[in-house]
Amino acid sequence: QLQLQESGPGLVKPSETLSLTCTVSGGSISSSSYYWGWIRQPPGKGLEWIGSVYYSGSTYYNPSLKSRVTISVDTSKNQFSLKLSSVTAADTAVYYCARRDAVTSDAFDIWGQGTMVTVSS
Amino acid sequence: QSVLTQPPSASGTPGQRVTISCSGSSSNIGSNTVNWYQQLPGTAPKLLIYSNNQRPSGVPDRFSGSKSGTSASLAISGLQSEDEADYYCATWDDSLNGWVFGGGTKLTVL
Lengths: 121, 110
Hints:
The complex is a heterodimer.
Chain A lengths: L2 E5 L3 E2 L5 E8 L8 E8 L6 E7 L4 E3 L7 E6 L4 E6 L8 E9 L5 E5 L3 E5 L2
Parallel strand pairs in A: 2-11
Antiparallel strand pairs in A: 1-3, 3-8, 4-5, 4-9, 5-6, 7-8, 9-10, 9-11
Chain B lengths: L8 E4 L5 E6 L11 E5 L6 E4 L13 E6 L2 E6 L8 E9 L4 E4 L3 E5 L1
Parallel strand pairs in B: 1-9
Antiparallel strand pairs in B: 2-6, 3-4, 3-7, 5-6, 7-8, 7-9
């Protein structure tokens, strides 16, 4: 069955760029039925959608983060990635990657386990 | 401040029926379908309800969803201790051009 796994540094310095990768296993990232997204959750708080990418490379971002976010896809590696620039302590959160089924449910139906990223010097 | 408004907490005793509300506006719930996620302590969210009232395979029929106008609700009947979790509503917002989540409701089984 399809699985998603986040990877990347757990600690990032303020003003630097946060970089994470999500590896998709058990299925192809190139399916036309799905979008691939990033969602984060600050400690003790709710969920915030960061942005999504289609296998073709088309993207759409949360307007509040758009100036700092880049999401890309590498179909040859079955991965997609997140870059968030100029981070501050407010970007400390658990970052999840997730699949959005655009055909059946139009919902994020499969999630990675999440990875904690702390912004601190 | 979340775009979708949920009560921060809810509670019930085993066997009871509880409902969790999610209030939005014409640009989100009023014009798009609502999804619900369950987040057990220390785990990733799990899709519980999609398209307002559809259950993914494996989700017990104790969980049900509904939508009316700019509000949606999640109902849990026959409450069980393992239902203790955080619950989030989510939908697309046409004005923001993005996915929005409610602030979450922490359900306690007394």
